[in-house]
Design a protein that fits this description.
single chain, about 100 residues, mainly alpha, elongated
């Protein structure tokens, strides 16, 4: 199960890199080890932000709260997604300056 989870995460991250580079940030400088490394570092960071925020929300929200798990997931996912998009736009896939 853990191997399957790891493989799916790597496959999803690799797919996200190529789709973002091709469709979302088309004006960005193309490729290179720095871009791939930055992408990998960003996704690693946002993974830990997501997991950490989720754990914090589960610890903070009342156990009696019916929507506790869903709320924690939404806050964690929203936080990680916002950080991910901003960093992809302004760091990893930044447009070349003329």
């Amino acid at each position: 199960m853990h191997l399957a989870k790891a493989i799916s995460f790597i496959a999803g991250t690799t797919t996200a890199y190529f789709l973002n580079r091709r469709f979302t940030f088309t004006g960005a400088r193309k490729g290179g080890a720095g871009q791939i490394g930055g992408f990998a570092a960003l996704y690693t960071t946002t993974f830990f932000v997501n997991v950490g925020t989720n754990a914090l929300m589960l610890a903070t929200l009342s156990a009696d709260y019916t929507w506790r798990v869903a709320t924690a997931w939404i806050i964690a996912q929203g936080t990680a997604t916002a950080i991910n998009f901003v960093m992809l736009k302004w760091v990893v896939f930044r447009e070349a300056r003329d």
